[in-house]
Amino acid sequence: MHDQHMNASLDSRLGLAEEDRPEAVPADDSLDPEDWRELRQLGHRMVDDIFAQLQGIRQRTVWQPPSPEARASYHVSMPTEGVPAATVYEEYRRFIQPYPLGNTHPRYWGWVTGAGTAGGILADMLASSMNGHVAFGDQAAVHIEAQVIGWLRDLLGLPEHASGLLVTGGSVATLIGLTAARDAKLASVLTEGMAQSRATAYASLEVHNCVDKAVGVLGVGRKNLRRVPVDRDFRIDCAALRAAIAADRAAGMTPFCLVASAGTVNTGAIDDLPEMRRIADGEGLWLHVDAALGVGLAASPSLRTLIQGIESADSIAFDLHKWFHMQYDVGCVLVRDADSLRRSFSPSAAYLAPMPRGITSGGEAFGELGIDLSRGFRALRVWFGFKEHGLNRYGRLVEQNVDQAGYLALLISRTPYLELLAPVPTNIVCFRYRGRGELEESRRDHVNREIVMALHESGLAVPSYTTIDGRFAIRVAITNHRSRREDFDLLISEVSRLGEERSNPHHD
Ligand SMILES: *Cc1c(COP(=O)(O)O)cnc(C)c1O
Predict the structure, then answer these.
(1) Ligand 1 in contact with 269 (CB < 6 A)?
(2) Which end of the chain has the least Cβ crowding within 10 Å, N or C?
(3) Does the bond joining 329 to the residue before it have cis omega, within 30 degrees of 0?
């Protein structure tokens, strides 16, 4: 009815008489549902299921391997014909939803992983409903991203003229920061390529491997990322850093960038940022800070002094999907000099040039500040999160996690046969089951690997692991707003039990 009416009025506007109308053509198809009411009901059911599941998360195992049926479903070939959305949802409930990594669970402490929030789920639904494309334009999504970037810039103490953008995560943020560094310090490379540059960058042995990726992608070359030794607290040795730069200069290399860690992935160590700034200034180098983890400390009035000096960086890469608990994926790169991103990422293109009026007449062109042109509306979940909880709440939760790490370290020191393997400056605890005197050093790595795998398989807790001074360590990184003290009691009693069991020579 409605369509006929529309056609009739369109015909009259076009001056078409009834007899001029083309033969009946099939109605144009679209992907919208035939029955909106049915879809709304499905949506309501999904929302109910989602929050019931999240509310009961504590009663579930952290992780379980996908069932054989689920695995088989992952290999079904592409459907050529569709089925109702409700049927697709049933399949999701059986084969997908029960088999997550587990990071929404209160006892997930692996790698550095955020748990997400209930409100964030709704924010994502809203962002998805706008299907925001946030490359440019005088549109709310662009203005919201600019607002969020301004908040984060102020949080980290960068000047008003600094700029940046949201990206998928710390790795891409690092790549963008180091690209800006390269093009600021090695003037000809952007047009001429890296061939003659002999460029070198510097970071500690503990720096995250996203920096290795970045120097590889940029053509600096992995061997030209100098890995500088660390002190006993796993912070970069600044005397060794100066010496490395001097040696490279003497050998005819061109140092261009220092990468400082504000929270290393292994132990949470924070490099001496003010001293690295002084070295960078003395040598005319760019200072990039990897604060993927440490940015959370900025939210706490009592902990933010730990990352003092971050405000002097030329670029900062960090994540919001880790210690700020925002849904994956969202990270951020900020640069002190707004022009530096534009220099690296806005080659001219007639089809993207702004017009004096209309859609393209206003708003930050985020597509010209980074690698992505088409970009989603990640900013909404950041905006929603800060609006819903406020900075202070995030700060208190960061403090809670740091306190929990201290509590866990204390438990370890008080529990027979366990030992800490590294200092605990913030929220990461590396330890192992040391065992009784007769447990040989060479068997300890094996026993601790067994402990970690058994914890994962039981679904009781998910810590990760690393190597500290050549020893296998159980690693607990607490960026989880759902964890409680009793969760750490449970972890320690289970590690002790498993350690006793697995170090028994008759066990395997
Ligand atoms: C997680 C992390 C990264 C990489 O960030 P992604 O968001 O995973 O790309 C870099 N550095 C540190 C210290 C990290 O913890």
Answers:
(1) no
(2) N
(3) yes
